[in-house]
Amino acid sequence: MRKLYVPKSESELIVLKSLLDSEGINYFVHNDYFGSLEVGPSIDYYNTKTIMVAEDQYDWAAKVLSSFVTNKGTKKGRISQPRYTLLDKIRMTLEAFSFAWFMPGRMRRKKK
Asked: What's the pLDDT tens digit per position in 57-94?
């Protein structure tokens, strides 16, 4: 399986799944249900939803989805990954540090 696209929202994922279904393309959504839990920051291969397709169907699937995601940027018929600005990178770093407060740490027992 090959990574095809990472949708930005649930509604975008639903539309992309329906496009692939209508063309008869076999696909797999990595973290389809677990990714819906929205547990803190989005981390690749942990809670980010990713559409995966077979190698032999990748070119056709990319062509089908490129008509929908043209405003997101395509390059030579292949769907490109998003480019993050400096502000986006700073925001993601601050989110990672600010969400660290909910990570469980060592529990210290008080002495009696």
From this structure: 999 999 988 878 775 544 554 555 668 889 988 988 88
Domains annotated for the chain, with CATH where assigned, are 2-102 (3.30.70.1530)
Distance, CA of 10 to CA of 80 (rounded, Å): 19
pLDDT tens digit sequence for 46-59: 677 889 999 999 99
Question: Which residue has tokens 């692939």?
Answer: 20
Please check whether residue 84 is in contact with residue 98, taking contact to mean a CB–CB distance below 8 angstroms. Answer: no
**0.85 cut: is pTM over it?**
no
Cα torsion 25, 28, 29, 30 to 10°: value is -150
Tokens at 80, concatenated: 């490109």
